[in-house]
Write a structure and sequence with these properties.
By secondary structure, this protein is α/β, with parallel strands linked by helices. It has helices at residues 13-24, 44-48, 55-58, 60-69, 87-93, 122-129, 153-163, 176-183, 205-211, 230-238, 240-254, 367-370, 378-392, 406-414, 422-437, 449-456, and strands spanning 2-9, 29-36, 73-76, 96-99, 105-106, 119-121, 145-149, 189-193, 217-220, 262-267, 270-277, 284-294, 300-310, 313-316, 320-321, 339-340, 343-347, 355-364. It has a 7-stranded mixed sheet with strand order 3-2-1-4-18-17-16, sandwiched between helices. It has a 6-stranded parallel sheet with strand order 6-14-7-8-10-9. It has a 3-stranded antiparallel sheet with strand order 11-12-13, with no helix packed on it. Helix 1 (13-24) packs across helix 13 (378-392), helix 10 (230-238) packs across helix 11 and helix 15 (422-437) crosses helix 16 (449-456). The longest helix has 16 residues, at 422-437. The site of NADP nicotinamide-adenine-dinucleotide phosphate has 27 residues, from helix 7.
């Protein structure tokens, strides 16, 4: 039987689903898979993107772990594609590669004042509170009033983590430094800024409802934002999620303020115009927004009515953006590796920006394929499409000079790369659980890469 050796780069849900589907697909070849991950732990955005107080979504780790534990797939953690292993290395050792590296940085926002001290990208804050080993362990939270720009689930995550009582996070895996950082927070008011209306939000109902149930937090709404025009009514009637979202807002509009010590304000029809600096310190002090009005078809127009929202910190949560990968084409406009149904395409030298020619042996799946939209589950159908192409493209596979599975281990060892494997992950997992047990918590996440590597080795 013909043998297919596939490398997958990125051990998040996208990469692991692709591995799972490759092993399960009906096929006439024997498949062996190696999964490369730059971090010492797998699970990508589930471990380093999902908020710690979302145990249901964090629980996806269990099904991902089952895939890895089946033994069809070898894991090489702490291996960075582009430096520790190159495209040329992959061509010499595999028949094909699937990149599943996701989208981990914030989309740019062109806004006067965006460069001021106190202005942050949501992804950086997420990386801090999720204990990403490559990010600083300190995060100052001196602001009493904070603005979060965006009406998606990431904006809700940021706002919730800012207003939530740190002790209510002790049932989660948050690292110690994050607990201490949140305890030192001065925040009393968080303002969520949406440039369009309540019926154009990207929130999902479950995540929205959750912020209304937080301990010691009042929700503040402007009733004027809920005088829907025909287009908003149509959106609400044609979308079940929006119907539920509308019910949630309505129930909040009926609520009395409880005098809670923290408040979450929703500002709709508020287009960010400028982040204003404090005259003395030069850091952010307010977000100026322009009131917008519905244009009757889901968009908005400016009204010329400006107001200032106090904000000594401003977070932009306006979507993630993919990062280029060494030696691969990249669509700078969309932040993805250009592809047709997961088959990577090359830039057309005669018309730059047009990606026409398929590159044999190179595939993508997940957010680096389709952009940073959709929930984790959507990644499965994405992987299915990519995997089908990998299996059907036998005539275009690479012809590796070192197909022996041990050759990759030898290569990494020769380069002095301290890679981890699935046993290493089990060791780290046990270590984190033990850290938690010692203080009556389920788990405490390890942040330092060195400590992760030591724990992986069972030291
Ligand atoms: P998103 O859902 O695309 O939301 C981005 C938000 O930013 C939109 O409200 C958008 O408004 C706004 N925005 C974009 N450009 C803007 C600008 N220049 N000025 C003001 N506002 C701007 O992105 P996301 O929140 O990063 O989420 C990414 C994906 O991850 C989504 O599928 C999300 O559901 C998922 N996710 C899920 C969870 C969960 O707990 N289930 C948690 C986090 C993320 P417009 O609509 O007007 O463009």
């Amino acid at each position: 039987m013909q043998r297919l050796r596939v490398a997958i780069v990125g051990a998040g849900p996208a990469g692991i689903y692709a591995a799972d589907l490759l092993t399960k697909a009906e096929r006439s070849v024997q498949v062996s898979i190696d999964l490369f991950e730059r971090l010492p732990a797998p699970y990508g955005l589930v471990r380093y993107g999902v908020a710690p107080d979302h145990p249901r979504i964090k629980g996806i780790v269990n099904s991902l772990r089952e895939v890895l534990d089946q033994g069809h797939t070898r894991v090489f953690g702490n291996v960075n594609y582009g430096t520790d292993i190159t495209l040329d290395d992959l061509k010499q050792h595999y028949h094909a590669v699937i990149f599943a590296t996701g989208a981990i940085r914030d989309a740019e926002l062109q806004l006067p004042g965006i460069e001021l001290a106190g202005v942050h990208g949501a992804a950086d804050f997420v990386n801090w509170y999720d204990g990403h080993p490559d990010y600083p362990t300190e995060w100052a939270l001196p602001a009493e009033s904070v603005a979060v720009i965006g009406n998606g689930n990431v904006a809700l995550d940021i706002a919730r983590m800012l207003v939530k009582r740190p002790d209510d996070l002790l049932s989660t895996e948050i690292p110690d430094n994050v607990y201490r950082g949140l305890q030192d927070s001065a925040v009393t008011d968080v303002h969520i800024i949406g440039r369009r209306g309540p019926m154009q939000v990207k929130f999902t109902p479950l995540e929205l409802r959750e912020v209304g149930e937080l301990n010691d937090v009042d929700i503040v709404l402007n009733p004027d934002d809920f005088n829907y025009d025909e287009s908003a009514k149509l959106a609400q009637q044609s979308n079940k999620q929006l119907l539920v979202i509308d019910r949630i807002f309505n129930s909040w509009l009926q609520r009395e303020q409880s005098g809670a010590s923290r408040r979450l304000h929703f500002h709709f029809y508020a287009r960010p115009d400028e982040i204003l600096p404090d005259a003395a310190s030069g850091s952010a002090t307010a977000l100026r927004v322009e009131r917008t009005a519905s244009d009757g078809s889901g968009g908005v127009v400016g009204t010329g009515d400006f107001r200032e929202i106090p904000a000594q910190q401003v977070y932009r949560a306006i979507g993630y953006f993919g990062s280029p990968l060494a030696e691969l084409p990249f669509d700078e406009r969309r932040g993805v590796v250009p592809n047709v149904e997961g088959r990577v395409q090359r830039d057309d030298p005669t018309s730059p920006g047009q990606f026409n020619e398929v590159l044999p042996g190179i595939y993508v799946t997940g957010w680096i394929k389709r952009g940073p939209i959709g929930l984790i589950g959507h990644t499965k159908s994405d992987a299915k499409e990519t995997v089908e192409h990998v299996l059907n493209d036998a005539g275009n596979w690479w012809n590796p000079s070192h197909p022996d599975p041990h050759a990759v281990n030898a290569l990494l060892e020769q380069r002095g790369i301290h890679y981890t494997d699935i046993e290493g992950w089990h060791n780290l997992d046990t270590y984190e659980v033990a850290l938690g047990e010692a203080v009556g918590r389920e788990r405490i996440k390890v942040v330092s890469r060195d400590e992760m590597l030591r724990a992986s080795k069972g030291e």
